[in-house]
User: Which sequence fits this backbone?
């Protein structure tokens, strides 16, 4: 990736993720019917907590939430229809976005929502997005998600905590404080 502008673009997408939603719950993360972005959602939730940026806390939007699912896992596609100005729709798609998703993204854009995308070079999705980033062939999709989510929390946390302090805080959160 040396000589590539990809890391710089990942930071730009991370900055957009951090700054475009204007309220907690305003970052909607959706995938395709065959790919739910659990991984990215979990990392953004961690970054929100570590950075203290409530607007970065994601809402996972699912194609088919099962009946009786907990509230945080039961948000369906109807939520995209309610997307408005001040909210951000982040499409994380390892496979090509189907037409029904593209239509919903276009409607959300017309309603004033900011559209961001992380994909594997999907020209139709990228054309609808205000900012889009394709994962290069030299990087796994999971690796790309890690870099973008870390970039989303970077600017806010970098001022308060160095890398060691962030890692220590994350370890304390996961495993409990050391003796």
Assistant:
């Amino acid at each position: 990736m040396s000589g590539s502008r990809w890391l710089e673009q990942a930071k730009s997408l991370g900055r957009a993720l951090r700054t475009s939603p204007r309220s907690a719950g305003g970052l909607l993360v959706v995938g395709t019917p065959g790919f739910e972005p659990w991984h990215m959602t979990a990392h953004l939730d961690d970054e929100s907590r570590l950075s203290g940026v409530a607007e970065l806390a994601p809402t996972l939007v699912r194609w088919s939430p099962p009946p009786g699912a907990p509230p945080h896992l039961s948000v369906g596609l109807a939520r995209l229809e309610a997307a408005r100005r001040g909210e951000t729709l982040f499409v994380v798609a390892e496979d090509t976005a189907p037409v029904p998703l593209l239509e919903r993204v276009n409607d959300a854009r017309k309603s004033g929502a900011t559209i961001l995308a992380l994909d594997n070079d999907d020209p139709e999705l990228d054309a609808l997005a205000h900012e889009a980033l394709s994962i290069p062939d030299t990087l796994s999709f999971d690796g790309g998600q890690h870099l973008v989510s870390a970039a989303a929390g970077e600017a806010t946390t970098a001022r308060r905590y160095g890398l060691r302090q962030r890692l220590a805080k994350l370890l304390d959160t996961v495993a409990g404080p050391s003796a």
Remarks:
- Confidence is low (pLDDT under 50) at residues 156-160.
- The radius of gyration is 16 Å.
- The first helix runs from residue 6 to 19.
